[in-house]
Amino acid sequence: MDTHPRKLLVIIAEAALERSLVADARRLGAQGYTVHDVRGGGRHGTREGDWEADRSIEMKVIATEAVAEAIARHVLATYCADYSVTMFLADAQVLRPEKFS
């Protein structure tokens, strides 16, 4: 089976950022994305999603390394100082490379 290398960028952030993150990712070259409502906890407490300001999302973008890194750099520079944001990059292999710029 032929596979093609891409990067998976996962952004876990306050739900209030969803529209901005989607717009930023599209503007920076992502062809698509997936967003889920999530909850969890860590060093700075627990986000259970019981009320609107306590909601979190997980956004996944599969893209070329250049696009994924451009989005990650933008999110770091724009949101991380003022919002709860966690990000990571992972290697991915896709079967239809034309779907993931």
Please give a handful of descriptors for the protein shown:
2 helices, 4-stranded antiparallel beta sheet, alpha+beta, 101 residues, 40% strand
Structure description:
- The chain is α+β, with helices and mostly antiparallel strands and 101 residues long.
- It is built from 2 helices and 6 strands.
- A 4-stranded antiparallel sheet has the order 2-5-1-6, with helices on one face. A two-stranded antiparallel sheet has the order 3-4.
- A hairpin with a 2-residue loop joins strand 3 and strand 4.
- The longest helix has 14 residues.
- The protein is globular.
- It starts with a strand and ends in a 7-residue tail after the last strand.
- The relative contact order is 0.35.
- The mean pLDDT is 90.
